[in-house]
Amino acid sequence: MTKLSVNINKIATIRNARGGSEPNVALAAVNCEKFGAEGITVHPRPDERHIRYADVYELKDLVKTEFNIEGYPSKDFIKLVTDVKPHQVTLVPDPPEALTSNAGWDTVKHEEFLSEVIAEFKSHNIRTSIFVDTNLANIEGAVATGTDRIELYTEPYAANYSKDRDAAIAEFVIAAKRAYELKLGINAGHDLSLENLEFFSKSIPNLDEVSIGHALISDALYYGLENTVQMYKRLLVK
Ligand code: PXP
Asked: Would the pTM of this model clear 0.90, i.e. be above it?
């Protein structure tokens, strides 16, 4: 079964626009779980423009499903994650000023760095995942880092879905097959939506988890959070 992890960064972005505590990030997390989400994802960035480090500490005891913290493994991030001890940490190579994650790791070039960081997280019993594109060299390189899982960067799939979905999915099918052979768990995320999620889920067997933020929180404006979480869950192959 593929788990739906809701990325609640956008809730924090709206809250931060007015400087108060509405909408409430902790309540949104608890409600996502109540409505059926199987995980909560946060992506704190160094400038704290979305989720703040303080939010992550607050969520530690509130999240009852799977807590996933994503980010670039800076010293501060590593401290945060080892303090909070989420179920999973997802390592993303984004520079601090990036609007959103826009590439996966070059796992060959960064093997030593990733291996060290992953060993540190694993010594705290935190499952690790690293964000990668479908380049097989990066997937094969992921094994050497000791990571438990990879997260496939799905932006290129989402961008090409409406033009030709079979062509858009092809490289993801090959990459997921290779990851499975190498005994890596498979997560996926970025720009997944009500439009493109079902085909992705049907095409990629052994998909452990999707993490979805922007489209899901935007859809919740129209359909409400409870309906929206359920709509996304229905699109995942059981
Ligand atoms: N996975 C990673 C590594 C991300 O950085 C993001 C965006 O923060 C997502 C998944 C979710 O992407 P989206 O907000 O487009 O659903």
From this structure: yes
